[in-house]
Amino acid sequence: MQSRQLAAVELRRSAMQSRKASNLFSPWMGGLLPFLALVGLATALAAPVTATDGERCDITAGEWLYSPRHAPQYTAESCKSLGRDFACQRNGRPDSEYLKYIWRSFGCRIADFKPLSFLTLMRNKVFLIVGDSLTMNLFSSLQCLVETVTLTQDLKGPLFPGGPETRGIIAPAFNATFLRHPSSFLTNSKPDGEKSSASTWTVHLDEVHPDWSPLLQYSHYVLFGTGTWYTMADLKKRRYMLNNTLQPEMDRIVTMQIAINTVIKFTRSLNYTGMPMFLTFTPMHYHVKLNESMQDANCSVIQQPLTVQQIANMEWAVDAVGTRKAQLKVFQHALEFKIIDITTLSLYRADGHLQSYFDIKGGIDCLHWCIPGVPDTWANIIYSYMMGYL
């Protein structure tokens, strides 16, 4: 309860700061030679953009600005690799206003994703993404952005030492490889029996998952993401293990923190010299209350970003902020990780979810995001860190 109260205070403080600030700023060579002859980082093509006060900028303090001429670099139709899961426009979403908002930080400027510069940096390198379905959401955005300037080819095992669920693409013109491995808990976990919505999962909080861990030593960049499967009590049944010993009922936030710390320890045990990143908690919008007189609604009725004032006292927003704070606390002593802090800016974007425009008829999805859409902004932040702008 105390953490929830603190999160609520932080949201209200953010609302006050926003009102003040808005006055100032309205290696697979041919698929045969894995991971050989990998070269060093390319030189950044432009100088970093720093905060106006000389300090490192805070990307979480800002607002979504409507820009009627703004358009994504690709469409659901032009990105041929985009599956039906996230292709809202292809699946019949009639509106497109949600694509015309730009995140503007008050203290700094996030660079627009430049696919050619990104691929130049990624030449002869490997980018690994490990995490839940929200990180796969992001992978789709990155793939579509890359494919605006070059062709890619699918990679499927056993070309690499990952588990059977590892997938990836290579941009042959740059020998740039992008791998994704679904691992919702990040740590070693498996369902009892066949995977289903009724499965009970055994989660070893102090062991990284053996299907993705062999890939890390070959990766120049790695992005981890987790949170939803730990914090949603009704999502999956779980049995948590520490030292191969079944634990009594544990606090959901604590289990997540232990798992993240396990990942940090593992990267350090390898003396990992690449750039490790972590994607903060991605909020869902199933219970939105726009004003005091209306009942809770889901994301399907939202057609524009929420305001700070609208989210400040919503329980789900308080929970999301609290989860983010718990994640950041773990990284206080792991400064080698770049934090892709997308929780706050995503809180406003109830309009950007799949709604009913995905591949399962009759459902409403207020957790995952349309592609193109909000995850393209996440990609901008990753790009800015990789290029040295943040």
Question: What fraction strand?
Answer: 15-25%
Number of strands: 17
User: CATH architecture, please?
Assistant: 3-Layer(aba) Sandwich
Overall structural class, as computed from helix and strand content, comes to alpha/beta
Radius of gyration: 20 Å
* Poorly predicted regions: 14-54
CATH topology type: Rossmann fold
Largest sheet: 7 strands, mixed
Query: What coarse outline follows from CA principal-axis ratios?
Result: globular
H and E order: HEEEEHEHEEEEEEHEEHEHHEHEEH
The CATH homologous superfamily: SGNH hydrolase
Task: Describe this protein's structure.
By secondary structure, the protein is of the alpha/beta class. It has a single domain, classed as SGNH hydrolase (Rossmann fold). It contains nine helices and 17 strands. The protein has a seven-stranded mixed sheet, covered by helices on one side. The protein has a four-stranded mixed sheet with strand order 9-10-12-13. The chain has a two-stranded antiparallel ribbon with strand order 1-2. Strand 12 and strand 13 form a beta hairpin. Helix 1 crosses helix 7. The longest helix has 20 residues. The protein is globular, with a radius of gyration of 20 Å. 44% of the residues are buried. About 11% of the residues have low confidence.
Descriptive terms for the model:
alpha/beta; Rossmann fold; 17 strands; 4-stranded mixed β-sheet; 390 residues; 7-stranded mixed β-sheet; globular
